[in-house]
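We close this part of the discussion by returning to an individual protein. In the encoding step, the backbone of a single protein was reduced to a row of integers, each denoting a local shape. The sequence in question and its structure tokens are set out directly beneath this paragraph.
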Amino acid sequence: MKPYHFIIPALLLCYSCHQDEVKLVDGPKFGVNKGKKEGTDFNAQNGAGGFDATQGTALGAINMNNAAKKNEPEVIVEELPRSYKQRKFLNDASSITSDLFMIPGNIVTYNPKDSSYQFRTLKAITRNNKPPIVTSISDGQVYSAKINSTTSFNGTYLIGGLTVSRDQIMELNINDVAISTVPDSLVDVDAIKSAISGMTDDDKKNLYYIKAATLTTIDSRKYTESKFDAAVNSCFVTAGGKTYGSNEKFKRDKNVSVFIIPLDHILNSVH
């Protein structure tokens, strides 16, 4: 996954200082990781899966515990926060390039047949073409713990696909570092209405607006089961009564999640 720099090709060329008429186009497609539900389907009737992070279908971690793994050393860790698991993580942005912070403000179409999305605008629709507001997050720790292979989210998109094998544990730190947002005051409702004026009501139902994009870093270091040796230049930890050592440096990966809401919510709530 390479989510650090995304957005529609030629976006910067189209982002002029003039408020030109917005027209819908067929832009690049992308997908989001949906995962398995955590149990209760909070919004199954809403098709696209509830883009409001407070209402959407939970992006629950995959439960990988089973009888075959009961003999592994027990590492008691907390689950990932529900708010983090409910995010929409970009998983297919190979056709999207440039600056991820210019993603918010664009209209996308949801395709219920394959659960994919398609950009329908070539630039963010904002008042006076002002760019989305980018804010750095100084204290954005989401999660910090050591996990083993029985941890429910081991190997899932929630941690960038990182995996821990049977004889390993992994030190894991997840931090939000920046967020790009289009506040209500910058949403150009008139331009949006003009752009979708020729569409049927059925087509409009599948239109969504990207409100925000969050950049998250995932720092990890794996430890392998081994005997403690003071003469070895390694870092040792204990878990479940066993010793694990590592001479690795922390590895950094990045995830990008988006906050997307139905377009009619924007038109009905923003004044």
About this structure: The two ends are 38 Å apart (CA to CA). The first helix runs from residue 11 to 14.
